Amino acid sequence: MSCKQPYLASFPASPHQLGAPQPRPLIRFLTGTHDLTNTTPIPGPVKKAAAVALLQDHDFFLHCDPHLTGYKALPPPTEPYKSFKVPADIVPLGAASGDGHKVKLYEVTDHVPNPVWDSNVLSTEEFVDFADGVWVRIRSPMGVVMETTWIVREGEGQLELVEDVHISCNRMLMGIVKGSVEGNWRKIHEKIVARMVEDAKKGEGAP
What we know:
The protein has 207 residues and is of the alpha+beta class. It has a single domain, classed as Alpha-D-Glucose-1,6-Bisphosphate, Chain A, domain 4. The chain has helices at residues 25-30, 48-55, 58-63, 80-83, 174-205; strands at 31-42, 68-74, 103-111, 120-130, 133-140, 144-154, 159-170. The chain has a 7-stranded antiparallel β-sheet with strand order 1-7-6-5-4-3-2. The N and C termini lie far apart (48 Å).
């Protein structure tokens, strides 16, 4: 996607985009979806507020991607409510005060060796912070769309990092996309949790 193109015009239709045309029957037939949930315990002495704040550090979050080669921020949409729709259970920070939900946009470049498309993959990612974490929609070439919800919640005696993933793409690509998620999530979670623990230990030692 060229950064000179209009933001909305450069995107494929998404089921969560307001006003998007309904997919034609053939497209619906060729498009598959898959849901995954990945959970990792967070050891003490990490506090929930600090863990959530780390998830909402978009620069750190983006650099947890093992394939990342670079990214840049894009201009925000002028009318986010007309351009986007987030899941009903996500209440964006600022929504209650009437500020509108804060969508942060990034153009992300990954190097992903694969047999189908060019290894240098240019995607657009939408970040929405909310009380328990961050919601991210990734739009990649060939109509691949991933929506991920990252939260920190109370588990059995300790906090947990939970990642819910919804994949929508051509059925022929599903195996590649799903395999990439399943192959990388543990490394990503380990990096995030390690930073949470490191920050917590630094906080304990502070005067």
